[in-house]
Amino acid sequence: MCVLRPFQGLRLTSTPPYSRLSGQSWLSDRSQQVILRGIKSPAVPITSGVPQGSILGPLLFIITIDSIIQVSISTLGRFSLFADGICYYRPVSQQEDILAVQNDVDWIYSWVEFKKLSLNASKTKCMLISRKRNPPNLNLTIDGVQIERVQHFRLLGVIISNDLTWSEHIVTACGKAKRFIGFLYRYFNLADKKCLEHLYLTLVRPMLDYGCCVLRPTQLGQTLCVNF
User: Fold this and answer.
1) How far is Cα of residue 13 from the mean position of the Cα atoms in its chain?
2) Would you say the pTM of this structure is higher than 0.85?
3) 54 Cβ neighbours under 8 A, 6+ residues apart
């Protein structure tokens, strides 16, 4: 990310000019070097990024990534942002919709390139949510690289399936909880009941409760798994 590029976006906001100038001054003319056993390497100018461990670092990144809403995508296209993750979604019912999705993906990639960011195509996934027997054939690319199409995708800790059932998430969460219970059984088998209850409520129960407000297991197997 270009060092001063986030401050260009602040011109479109109500941020006072002196705040922008102070930030630009803070990031301008910076250099870095390595000291090993008392020997210093030559100073190298920093042309991108922000100082690691700074308070302004995450803020500047958020300012940069939030400007993606200005990308000219189709009318039905929507974004969901969290940290450095971007989730794009759009209803698809015919071939023209698939072409619109590909066009939006191209616009997003162009925006990433313009912001001097990098888009990890290997971590980018595509999922078609449908209950149809013959759903549309959705093949998307990023800069000529095929986007992997998946049946399950983890979004903010919840595994979403392409048929909108929660079996995959419930089985995964229960399996992880069982492994932690086994860990507690092996290393805390002599602990009293109150201690074990505290460990369970702290380490195991949150795994089962996370996202439970939307899961609502309705199948018998899912219910038995949660109530193991």
Assistant:
1) 25
2) no
3) none
